[in-house]
Specification:
Elements (H helix, E strand, L loop, with lengths): L3 E6 L5 E6 L12 E4 H23 L4 H14 L7 E7 L1
Helix pairs in contact: 1-2
Length: about 90
Amino acid sequence: MPERIFKVSWPDGQEEDCYSPSSVIDQHLIPEQEYTLASFLAIATEALNEASSRVRQKYGYACSSAMDQLGKIEQKSKRFKPTDTVKVISIR
C-alpha cells in the first residue's frame, strides 16, 4: 500500500505531518486547500477509516496507525472552533 503523509496547518499556524497508510487520502483532501475544521475533521475521519479498511482487505487486520492518527487529529481539533480553518499544505 502506498503510504501518504499529509501536512496540515492548524488554525494556530502550527504545521503537522499526518499519516495515512493508503493513497486513498488523495481522493479526499486537496493540497493547498483550506477547510473549516468541521469539514476537515469529517473528511479526515472518512479517509482514514477507508484507508484502514483497505489495509484490512489486503492484510486481514485494521491499521492501528490510521486510527492513532485519527485520534490525534480529533484531540487537536478540540482546541479550535468548528469554523476555524485548517489548510492541507501537501500530500506526499
